[in-house]
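Let us begin with a simple case.
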Amino acid sequence: MKRLVLLLCFPLTAMAAPANTAKLAHSLDTIIAARFKPASPGVAALIVRDGHPILRKAYGLANVELNVPLQPEHVFRIGSTTKLFTATAVMLLVDEGKLDLGAPVTRYLDAAPRHWEKVTIEHLLTHTSGIPNLSMDSGYWRTTARLDHTLEELISPVHARPFDFEPGTKFAYNNTGFNLLGMVIEKVSGTDYFAFVEQRIVKPLGLKHTRESNDKQLIPGLVTGYREGPTPAWPLANSNLHAAGGLVSTVDDLAAFMLSLQSGKIVSPASVKRMNTSHVLPNGAATGYGLGTWVRKVNGKHLVGHGGYIFNFYSQLEMDVDSGIVAVTLHNGDKFGGDNEELSRQLISAVQGSIVGI
C-alpha cells in the first residue's frame, strides 16, 4: 500500500516497477544500514529510478529521549535544499515575463543601495553577487541566528557594506543573496514567499508535507535534531533561514518535486536546462553551480540537486538526469552517518551500476 501511495505521488509514472529490484534494494539497504546505529539519530532515504521507488526506508531514531524510531514519512528541516524551491519560484516568474535574470536587483527592490545596480538576479542565483553574506559574520550563529528577524532585517545589515568582490567575477556561497531573492519574489508576485511556494509549487504538485518551518506552530511528524553526543540541537530561530533555508519536507515530497521539475512540469524545459547548467565565470572557470542547483558528474553522468545543513539536520536531494535516478536522504543528526553528499553519490552509483542488469 505504501508503494502504491508513493507511485501516485510521482508525476512521471504509475506503472509497475521492475520485478527484479529486490537485490538492488538489499544492496542499498546494506550501504545505509552500515552507517547508522539503531539507537542514534538517523536518516530517512528514498531512491527512485524512472519514477519507481527502489528503496524507501528509515534508520535510527526520530527522538532519542523517547526512543521513537524514524519512519520514511517523517518531516525534516531541509535547510539549503530550500534554495532549489526558491530558484524554481524565480524561474516561474521569469517564464511569465515578470522577472529578467539580467536585470539589476535595484529594478525590483526600491530600498536596495545604489551600488547594488551592478548586481543582477542571475548573480544572486549563481552566488556570484559579491554582496556580503551575513551568516558568515563572526558570532552570527551563536547570537543573531537565535533571535527572530524579518526578511528586511536579514538584508539591511549589509546595505552599507562594500562588495566582497566585483559582482560576477567569483563564486561565494551566499545565504543573504537567496534571502534577497525571497524579497524579490515577494515584491514581484505581491505574495509572501512561503505562500508563493505553497500556491505555485506545493499545492499543484500535491506535496503533503512541504511547508514553512515555523517555530511558532506545531508541525505534525517533525523529528528532533541532534548534534554530537547525541545532544540537543543548538537553538535557532527559523525566521533567519527564510528563502535560503526555511522549509521542511519529506523524502516523498522532495522526490516528487525533483521529478516534476526535471520533466518540465513546473517551469519550462528551457528554464530547467539553464538551472542545470554550471555557471561559468569571466575567466572561463565553471563554478559547479547553476541557477539554484549544484551540478556534478558521477560515473560520467550528469547530477543536479541541492543539499542543506541547519542545526542539526542534513538534507540531500540529487538526480542523475541521464539515468532517471533520484536519491533523497534526510538526516536528523550532525553527520552521525558520515558525509551526506558522499552517501548520496554512493547510492546513485549503486543504481547506475545495476541498470544494465535490470
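The second case is a distinct protein. As before, the sequence precedes its C-alpha cells.
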Amino acid sequence: MRRFVSITMALALVVGVAACGDGDEAGAGTEVRLAGLWPLSGPNATQGTDVLHGAELAVDIVNNDHPGVDLPLAPGAGLPGLGGAPIKLITGDTQGKPEVGAGEVDRLVTTEKVAAVIGSYQSGVTLTASQRAERLGVPFVNEASSSVALTERGLKWFFRTGPTDETFARSMFDYLRARQAKGERIGTVGVFHSNDQFGNDGAGVTEKVAAEIGLPVVVNVAFDPTAADLASQVTQVRAKNPDVLFVLAYTDAAIKLMKTLDQLAYHPPALLAYGTGFADPAFASGLGELADGVSTRAAWSGEIAAKRPAAKTVAELFQQRYGAPMTENSARAFTAVLALAQAIDAAGSVEPAAVRDALRALDVPGEKTIMPWTGIRFDGKGQNTGAAGVVEQMLDGRYRVVHPADLASTEAVWPMIRARQ
C-alpha cells in the first residue's frame, strides 16, 4: 500500500513550514481555513444543509479528541502534522447557481484565504466553481457531484472522492441483470432527467451502459427543473411504457414526479433514481407512502454502516448532533473533508501545491472510511478509483439495501407498486 506521502517529502514540507512566516503557510497551532461551498438557500437548501452537517461533523472529529472513533485524525485534537492546528470551515452559499458558486470561490480564496475548497453538491455548480479554483491554483475537493464530465476536463487541482454516474449506472444495470436472472421481464428502459449538467450527463451515461448490455432506451425525456408541472413529460414516458424508468432529479422535481405518477395512475414496474433528490430526507417525509417502492443508487447506506464500527459510531454522533439520520449526502461530505484533512496533515502545509501533491499520494483503505468502498485513491484525472455504489429501495418509509446480494438486507419488491399495497 502506498504511503500517504513519502517521508522525504513530508520532512521537506515541514521544514518549509518552519522556515516560512505567517504568509501562505500554516505554522504550529495556526487554524487551517477550508471553504465549504453548497446551496444553503434556494430550492436545494435542504440537501445543502444536510451536506454541510456532514462536513461540520468531520471538522469536529479532527478538532476534538474522539478516541472511540476508529478513523484517521479522530484520536487527539487538531492536525498533528501542523502542530495540532484546528480546522475552521468557512461556508459559501451557491444558491444553486453556477455563477454564484464561481463568485464565492473568488471570495473564499482571495478574501477568506482558504487553503482548499470542498463542494458544491450540484454538478452544474461544481463545474464552474472548480474551474474558478483551477484558475486560482487552489485544490477543489468534490464530495457529491457525480457527472462524469467533471473529471474529463484535464484539470490539475480537481479531486472527487465519490463515485461517478457511470459507476452508479453499472451498479444499477448489474441489479437489473440480477432481477432478470430471477425471472423479471426487463426488455426496455426509459430515462427521465433534468435539463442541466447533472441530468444531461447522467442520461448520456445511462444510454451508453444500456447499449453495452443490449437494453434499448425507448424514451428519453428532459424536463425543466423549475417547471411547475410535469404531466406532459410523464405522459410522454407513459406512452412508451418502459420496463424500468431511470430518473435524475433534485428534491423538488423528485417529489413532483412521484405525485404526478400517482395522479396519472401510471406506475412503471421499477423506478431507479440517481440519488440526489431521492436521497434527501425531505423526499420521504414529503411523500409518505407514495415514496415506497422507489429504488436509488447510493454511495453510502446506514444499514451497511451499522456493520462497520467507525461508520456506526459516526452515524450515531450525527443523529445526536442534528436530530436526523445521516444520509448519503452528509456521509459523502464527511468523507471528503476527512480525506482533505489527511492530505493537509500529511503535507504538513497549506501551500496549495503541497496539498495537491498530498491528495495525489493519498491512499486510505476502505476500513478507515465510513463508506462501503475499497478506499480513497485518486487517479490522474482526480477521480477516486475506490468509490462504489449499492442499490436501495424505499420500503415502509426507509431505504433498504437490495443489491449487491452480499450486502443486501432484504429482497427487492417488484413491481414497485406492490410496496404500497
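The domain at 166-298+390-420 is CATH 3.40.50.2300 (Rossmann fold). The chain has a mean pLDDT of 91.
Keep these points in mind for the review questions at the end of the chapter.
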